[in-house]
User: Which sequence fits this backbone?
C-alpha cells in the first residue's frame, strides 16, 4: 500500500510553488518511494542509539579567534539584488 | 599514443624526464576534449585559459627546480559541486547558473597547491542526486564506452572525462556511490575515503553525514596520489578527521596471502547481471589462488540500507538546499512577497529529482512522521554499522560487485525513480557506516562494457584497502580503453 501524503502541506513547508499537476505526480512518486523506505520500520530498534556522526565524533572545538572573512562586496556581487551593503528582497509581509 | 592517455604516475615521470612539458600535456588533454565533448558532454565548463596558465606556471617552476610533487603539472577535472574561486560552479542546476564562488573548496585549494592543473568542471546529476548524470539541467553525459549508455552518476562527468582522456584524473563526491558507481561503469578506479578524511569545505552539501570527496583515476596508484594531496584535517570542516593520517602506501605490495576476504551474501543474486556476477566470482577465485582465505559473510541489515539511505539523504538534503532561496546568490524568480519569490525561485530553479528529494526529506522530517521515518532510519544506520563490525571480526575486507549492472541505456530508468535508486544498492552501506570503499575495473561484459569490483574496509583502513585494490588491479590486468580513445 503506497503511503498517502498531504503533498500541498509538504510543498508549502519546503517553499516550492508547484501546480496541481506537479503536486499530483510527486504525491504518487513519493508514495511508492516511501512504501519502500518504510521497510526500516520492520526492524526492531528497541534500545538502539541513532547514529549521529558516522565515526562517533561529538563536538569539535577550535580557538575563538577573530579572522578575516570574505569581503562584503565580493559576496554581494553574487546577489540577485543588493543596496547599501544589504541583500534586497520583496516585502516579507503583504500590504494592508 | 597521446599524452592524454598517460596515467598520472606516468605523466609525472615524463615531466621530470623532460620528455614533455606541462603545456604539451594540457594541450593534449584539451585537444582530446575538443574531439570528444560534442558527443560525451563530460564538462560543464572548460577553463582553457586557466588551465594553460597553470600549466605554464608548472613548467616554469619545474624548470627552476621547484617541484611540488607528483601532481605538479597534471591536468585534473573537478566535479561541478566543488567550489572554484571565480570559476562558475553550478551543481548542474539552473538555480546556480552563473554562480562564481568567492573561494576554493579545500580539496581544490590543496590540488592547486600541489601544482595540479584544473581543466574544468564536470557534469553531474543536479546537486549530485542521481546515478546516471541524466538529471543535469544542462543535458546528460554519455558513456565513452558506448554513447547510447549512461556513464553512471552522479560523478558521471568526472568519470567520462578520465575515461576519454580529457583529464588524467578527477575529483568526484560520493554520498551513496557517486564516485564508485560511475568509475565502475566507465572502467576506472573510484575511491570513497573514510568519512571525514577529506574536508568537505566548499563541497556544495547534499547529505552532510554521508558526503565525501574522492578520486576517479585510471589506476590505484593514481587514486593514492590524488588522495595524498587532498586528505587531512581542516578547521573549516568540523567533521573532518583530526587524528593522524594513515600512510596509504604502508601495506602496498604485501599481496593477499592469509588475508581473510568476505563475500557479502546480500549483494548477489536476483537483479545482478550474470556477466557482473561471473566476473566478480572469477576475481574472488583469483584472490583465493593468491592465498586469500575467502568466506561468505551475511550482513542482514544491508537489505534495508537503501531504505534508510532514501530517508536520511533526502532529509539532510531538504535542510541543506533550503539555502537556495533567491536571496544571496543564484537564480531569483520575482514574487510579490519574499515567500512567494522564494517558492517560485525554488520550483523553477530545481529539477524534478531534486524537488522529489526535497519533498521526500521534508515529509520525513515533518511533525508526526519524524520518529517513524528519520529517527528510525538513523537507528537502522547504527544496526548497519554493527553488522559491519561483526563481519570485520571474521574477515579483513569485504567484497562485492560495485553495481548490479553494467552501464544502462540513456533513458532506461528515468521514469522509475526506485529502479534508478537500486543502482546504488552495493555502494550505500559504506556511506552509512562512514567506511572507505573502492571500485576497481576487472573486465568487460560480452557487449564490451566495463565491470567494477568493490572492496570495502573498516574506517581509516585505507592502507589495507589500497593493498587489496592494487592486488585486484594486478590480477585483473584490465587495460582496455574505450573506442573514443583508440585511433
Assistant:
Amino acid at each position: 500500500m503506497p503511503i498517502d501524503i498531504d503533498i500541498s502541506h509538504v510543498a508549502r513547508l519546503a517553499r516550492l510553488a508547484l501546480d496541481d499537476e506537479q503536486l499530483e505526480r510527486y504525491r504518487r512518486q513519493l508514495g511508492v518511494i516511501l512504501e519502500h523506505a518504510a521497510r526500516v520500520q520492520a526492524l526492531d530498534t528497541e534500545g538502539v542509539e541513532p547514529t549521529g556522526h558516522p565515526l562517533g565524533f561529538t563536538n569539535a572545538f577550535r580557538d575563538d579567534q577573530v579572522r578575516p572573512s570574505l569581503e562584503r562586496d565580493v559576496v554581494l556581487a553574487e546577489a540577485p539584488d543588493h543596496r547599501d551593503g544589504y541583500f534586497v528582497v520583496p516585502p516579507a509581509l503583504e500590504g494592508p | 599514443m597521446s599524452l592524454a592517455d598517460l596515467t598520472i604516475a606516468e605523466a609525472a615521470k615524463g615531466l621530470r624526464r623532460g620528455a614533455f612539458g606541462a603545456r604539451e600535456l594540457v594541450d593534449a588533454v584539451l585537444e582530446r576534449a575538443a574531439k570528444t565533448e560534442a558527443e560525451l558532454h563530460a564538462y560543464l565548463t572548460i577553463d582553457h585559459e586557466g588551465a594553460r596558465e597553470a600549466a605554464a606556471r608548472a613548467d616554469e617552476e619545474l624548470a627552476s627546480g621547484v617541484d611540488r610533487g607528483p601532481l605538479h603539472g597534471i591536468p585534473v577535472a573537478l566535479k561541478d559541486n566543488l567550489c572554484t574561486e571565480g570559476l562558475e560552479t553550478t551543481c548542474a542546476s539552473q538555480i546556480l547558473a552563473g554562480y562564481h564562488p568567492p573561494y576554493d573548496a579545500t580539496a581544490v585549494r590543496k590540488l592547486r597547491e600541489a601544482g595540479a592543473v584544473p581543466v574544468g568542471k564536470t557534469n553531474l546529476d543536479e546537486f549530485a542526486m542521481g546515478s546516471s548524470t541524466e538529471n543535469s539541467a544542462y543535458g546528460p553525459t554519455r558513456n565513452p564506452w558506448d554513447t547510447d549508455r549512461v556513464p553512471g552518476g552522479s560523478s558521471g562527468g568526472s568519470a567520462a572525462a578520465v575515461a576519454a582522456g580529457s583529464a588524467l584524473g578527477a575529483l568526484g563526491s560520493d554520498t551513496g556511490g557517486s564516485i564508485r558507481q560511475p568509475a565502475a561503469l566507465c572502467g576506472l578506479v573510484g575511491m570513497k575515503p573514510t568519512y571525514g578524511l577529506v574536508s568537505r569545505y566548499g563541497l556544495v552539501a547534499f547529505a552532510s553525514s554521508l558526503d565525501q570527496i574522492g578520486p576517479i583515476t585510471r589506476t590505484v596508484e593514481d587514486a593514492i596520489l590524488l588522495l595524498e594531496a587532498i586528505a587531512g584535517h581542516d578547521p573549516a570542516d568540523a567533521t573532518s578527521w583530526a587524528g593522524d593520517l594513515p600512510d596509504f602506501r604502508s601495506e602496498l605490495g604485501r599481496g593477499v596471502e592469509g588475508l581473510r576476504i568476505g563475500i557479502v551474501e546480500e549483494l548477489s543474486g536476483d537483479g545482478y547481471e550474470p556477466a557482473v556476477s561471473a566476473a566478480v566470482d572469477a576475481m574472488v577465485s583469483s584472490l583465493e589462488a593468491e592465498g586469500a582465505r575467502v568466506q561468505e559473510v551475511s550482513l542482514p541489515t544491508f537489505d534495508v540500507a537503501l531504505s534508510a539511505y532514501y530517508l536520511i539523504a533526502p532529509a539532510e538534503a531538504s535542510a541543506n538546499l533550503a539555502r537556495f532561496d533567491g536571496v544571496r546568490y543564484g537564480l531569483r524568480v520575482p514574487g510579490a512577497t519574499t515567500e512567494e519569490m522564494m517558492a517560485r525561485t525554488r520550483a523553477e530553479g530545481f529539477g524534478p529529482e531534486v524537488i522529489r528529494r526535497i519533498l521526500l526529506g521534508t515529509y520525513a522530517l515533518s511533525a508526526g512522521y519524524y520518529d517513524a521515518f528519520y529517527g528510525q532510519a538513523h537507528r537502522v544506520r547504527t544496526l548497519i554499522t554493527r553488522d559491519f563490525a561483526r563481519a570485520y571480526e571474521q574477515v579483513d575486507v569485504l567484497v562485492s560487485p560495485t553495481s548490479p549492472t553494467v552501464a544502462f541505456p540513456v533513458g532506461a530508468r528515468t521514469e522509475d525513480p526506485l529502479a534508478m535508486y537500486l543502482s546504488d544498492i552495493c555502494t550505500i552501506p559504506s556511506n552509512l557506516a562512514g567506511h572507505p570503499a573502492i571500485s576497481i575495473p576487472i573486465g568487460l561484459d560480452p557487449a564490451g562494457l566495463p565491470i567494477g569490483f568493490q572492496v570495502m574496509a573498516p574506517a581509516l583502513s585505507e592502507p589495507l584497502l589500497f593493498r587489496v585494490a592494487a592486488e585486484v588491479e594486478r590480477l585483473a590486468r584490465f587495460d582496455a580503453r574505450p573506442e573514443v580513445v583508440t585511433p
